[in-house]
Specification:
The protein is 49% helix and 8% strand. The chain is mainly alpha-helical and 242 residues long. A 3-stranded parallel beta sheet has the order 3-4-5, with helices on both faces. Strands 1-2 form a two-stranded antiparallel ribbon. Strand 1 and strand 2 form a beta hairpin. The longest helix has 23 residues. The N terminus is likely disordered.
Length: 242
């Protein structure tokens, strides 16, 4: 699970390592964040330095009762733009392919869990302020990844009518496909839309917490981590009882 934002000094989470944390209902808990370890990239390979192998080693080392895999925008709408540009297909085709890939992603998560309890965290909500902020985020991520000029990408975004409204619709399509796939696999699932959408709970569901163009910018991080911890503990309870 990865939250991007300004971390207060007492935050326990750190990127690129196994970080101990506290979650009510668990004797011990850890957050693992590895660069490149997206659900889309979790494929079993012979390479010991790949994300699949690194996640497998971390799970074996910690030997947890329950594993929670978090899905983010690289697993969702951002990869749709990447696929469409890389393969020369329409954005609609790329979105359909991404929806169809969700069962495969979950099967890889199940293999990594190796019989342990498994919980799926759904996609983040879209918190970008407008279409301009969306295009900035896409330029920052896609231009270096695909060796595109900013002008070429801007032209493609205009020709394909990539707006914040369309971006949000893609997010919902893929989030829905992920939720339905998790239910078909009988996997506990929670979504930040439900966990953090109420007016008195500031979080990813509120656009004012979006900052930098490259990522979702969450400011009251410790409060949000506690909220996620509560819903994770509730969803994990049946897997731990089993």
């Amino acid at each position: 699970m990865r939250l991007a934002g300004i971390k207060p000094r007492d935050a326990l989470f750190r990127y690129e390592r196994i970080s101990p944390t506290r979650i009510a209902g668990f004797d011990s808990a850890y957050i693992l964040s590895l660069r490149g370890a997206t659900a889309a990239g979790l494929r079993q390979k012979s390479d010991r330095t790949g994300s699949y192998a690194r996640v497998a080693r971390a799970i074996a080392r910690l030997d947890p009762d329950t594993v929670c895999f978090g899905f983010g925008q690289v697993d969702a709408e951002l990869s749709c733009y990447y696929m469409a540009l890389r393969d020369g297909i329409s954005l609609a085709e790329a979105t359909r392919a991404k929806r169809a890939a969700m069962p495969r992603y979950l099967r890889n998560c199940l293999r990594l869990a190796e019989g342990r309890g498994l919980v799926i965290k759904g996609l983040n909500t879209v918190t970008l302020r407008g279409t301009g902020a969306l295009h900035m985020m896409l330029r920052a991520n896609l231009c270096p990844a695909l060796n595109l000029s900013a002008q070429d990408l801007s032209r493609w975004l205009h020709e394909n009518d990539v707006t914040l409204a369309r971006h949000g619709a893609i997010n919902i399509e893929i989030a829905t496909a992920l939720r339905r796939s998790a239910h078909r696999f009988d996997l506990p699932y929670f979504d930040l839309r439900a966990a953090m959408a109420s007016a008195d709970h500031p979080g990813l569901s509120q656009p004012r917490f979006c900052g930098r163009a490259r990522d979702v910018h969450v400011q009251p991080v410790m409060r949000i981590e506690r909220m996620i911890g509560k819903v994770l503990s509730r969803r994990a309870a049946p897997t731990r009882a089993a």
